[in-house]
Design goal:
The protein has about 90 residues and is mainly beta. The protein has no helices and six strands. The protein has strands at about 15-20, 30-35, 45-50, 55-65, 70-75, 85-90. Strands 1-6-3-4 form a four-stranded antiparallel β-sheet, with no helix packed on it. The chain has a two-stranded antiparallel sheet with strand order 2-5. Strand 3 and strand 4 form a beta hairpin.
Amino acid sequence: MYIETSSPRKRGDFAQIASPVFKPNSKCKVRFFYHMYGQHIGSLNIKTRTSVSGAMTQQWSLSGNQGNSWKRAEVLLSLTQNFQVCFYMPSKY
């Protein structure tokens, strides 16, 4: 997924991608690569929710310039109900 965080973005813009619904187990984790480079980089957030229209719970977040290279991340998830993972990126503006 790609989001342009500089102009022409406006306050309130965001990008979100959501997974299918998963069943919990003791080894739930999400692994991904990210590239956050430049002056106007906002934040990348990993959130979960237990229903597709439910409230989201923050699991991980990273903000700002992280350098001009791809980096790998892994987030362990300790959930007891079926859940959905959401990558959420609000515009910095």
